[in-house]
Amino acid sequence: MTKTYSNLIDGELVTTAGTMDVINPATEEVVGQVPSAGQDELDRAVAAARRAFQSWKKTTPEERQKVVQGIAATIKENADELFRLLTSEQGKPHNQAQQEIYGAAGLAAAQSTLRLEDVINQDDDTRLSRTRRVPVGVVGGIVPWNFPIMMAIQKIVPALVAGCTIVLKPSPFTPLTTLRIAELIKDVVPAGTVNIITGPDELGPMITSHPGIDKITFTGSTATGKKIMEGASKDLKRITLELGGNDASIVLADADVEKVAEQLFWSSFSNAGQVCIAAKRIYIHEDIYDDLSKAIAAYAKTVKVGDGAQQGTGVGPIQNKKQFERVCELIQDAKDQGYQFLAGGDVDPSGTGYYVPITILDNPPEDARIVAEEQFGPVMPLMKFATVDEAIERANASEYGLAGAVWTADAEQGVAVAERMETGTVWVNEFMHLSPFAPFGGHKQSGIGAEYGIDGLKEFTYPQVITIKRDAFA
Ligand code: NAD
Question: Residue-wise pLDDT tens for the chain (474 aa)?
């Protein structure tokens, strides 16, 4: 018997008559059931969040910090159970699941310290003008299946820190660990401040269009992000959208081949490539292309693809069947077009589990589907370039603008290249590093607004300017 999980509404654990199965992508077995919430549960959650907002918005930053630190501590104390559960529903190897759980606890603890200070705009004999930040109200949070816990925390925590309350919807593919955390924090957070409800994709538009919700914070695909923006436009809800990416890495001629090969590999294959900020296009200078592509392919041979719960697995399965079929289709297209493979390419669709072998392509053309589209799987196209200008032009020729990286022995030159990239984040000689205190957000169709840091926190607030006319009755 698998466990049936509950939703968290108004401080109570709630079930529904109908449930949804959650599948382990490594075994295709059901690992749990979750409530299938609809309009009724959503209405109750929103009403609870509205009630709780009346008192939560009046709490001090220190009181909020204490509650958020309670969430962080609870996650940390239960990390062992949580990371195993996360692997069973998401597929990622245990060590990567552990990083996500501890990373989420660390993010919560760090962001609990953020403060939105008042700004004095004018202070003279004529006038005192001050900008303060006031919470927007009830937030609707919608998250994807690739980093369910990190994404849930990066919605819940800034909402609470800003003085908002939240109704959060996990992805139907990966709701278990979030609901287990809901059980654990039930008495850590005041009733109604954090509500977590699970349902099919159809629950998403209900949240977006709910008149009792003031702001939507969403992470997911660009296609869904556009629908959210449309839904939110009816009553001009505030929105933060963290969407898809097709991140480019540029490896300059002076990069140390042996040292960068392994890092480049993981920049693409962490979480089986299902990372919005994974390197999805790697441009390598022609002088080192042959050596570096060989070194990456050699390293790939040392990495085991398998069940994330088994020791030694480096790359787990694709999280769900639909995504598995999409990645298989892109690989098949590359084969049909006659592109060359340095590794992988042969998927066994009849086996159990959504496994795709580590797949590396050798210099496919720029307009190949596997290059131009966000693969979101364990696929890495390596491409050759001759000049830095050409590499930057090719990297920027994308509707996306999430992140990118430059690899070089000369950090100054790396920064010069980074500044020409049209993305929200650019790393020089590292990958995927996000600071709790620096804004993370996409340019172009990779999103609107930012999360993390003061910029992210501000998105849960309105500015309110209060002025006093000092010489009014002088
Ligand atoms: P998705 O857009 O299919 O789903 C995300 C969430 O939206 C799920 O909870 C889903 O149930 C819900 N949803 C679906 N249709 C909806 C609708 N019409 N209205 C409201 N909600 C709806 O995305 P996914 O497949 O779960 O995640 C993969 C995508 O997420 C990739 O494109 C990836 O790049 C992106 N992503 C972006 C970031 C980032 O920070 N920029 C981080 C992680 C993932």
Answer: 799 999 999 999 999 999 999 999 999 999 999 999 999 999 999 999 999 999 999 999 999 999 999 999 999 999 999 999 999 999 999 999 999 999 999 999 999 999 999 999 999 999 999 999 999 999 999 999 999 999 999 999 999 999 999 999 999 999 999 999 999 999 999 999 999 999 999 999 999 999 999 999 999 999 999 999 999 999 999 999 999 999 999 999 999 999 999 999 999 999 999 999 999 999 999 999 999 999 999 999 999 999 999 999 999 999 999 999 999 999 999 999 999 999 999 988 789 999 999 999 999 999 999 999 999 999 999 999 999 999 999 999 999 999 999 999 999 999 999 999 999 999 999 999 999 999 999 999 999 999 999 999 999 999 999 999 999 998
Residue with tokens 């040392």: 302
Q: Could you tell me how far CA 368 lies from the centroid of its own chain?
A: 26
Q: From ligand 1's centre to the CA of 188, what distance in Å?
A: 28
Q: Hey, whose CA ends up nearest to atom 22 of ligand 1? A: 204
Nearest protein CA to atom 40 of ligand 1, as residue: 242
Structural element, H or E, at residue 416: helix 411-418
Q: Model-level pTM greater than 0.90?
A: yes
CA 370/CA 347 separation, integer angstroms: 15
Ligand 1 closest atom vs CA 145: 26
Say if strands 400-401 and 443-444 run parallel, antiparallel, or are unpaired.
Answer: antiparallel
Question: Which among 242, 374, 451, 459 is annotated as catalytic?
Answer: 242
Q: Which of 89, 100, 164, 276 is catalytic?
A: 276
Q: Is residue 242 annotated as part of the catalytic site, yes or no?
A: yes
**Would you say the CB of residue 402 lies under 6 angstroms from ligand 1?**
yes
Which of the listed residues 216, 219, 321, 373 should we mutate to test ligand 1's pocket, taking the one with most ligand atoms within 8 A of CB? 219
**Across the strands, what pairs with 130?**
120, 466
| Ligand 1: centre distance to CA 298 (Å) | 34
Region for 287 from its dihedrals, namely left if φ exceeds 0, alpha if ψ lies in -120 to 50, beta otherwise: alpha
Q: Which amino acid residue places its CA nearest to atom 43 of ligand 1?
A: 276
Q: Which residues contact 1 (CB under 8 A, 6 or more apart)?
A: none
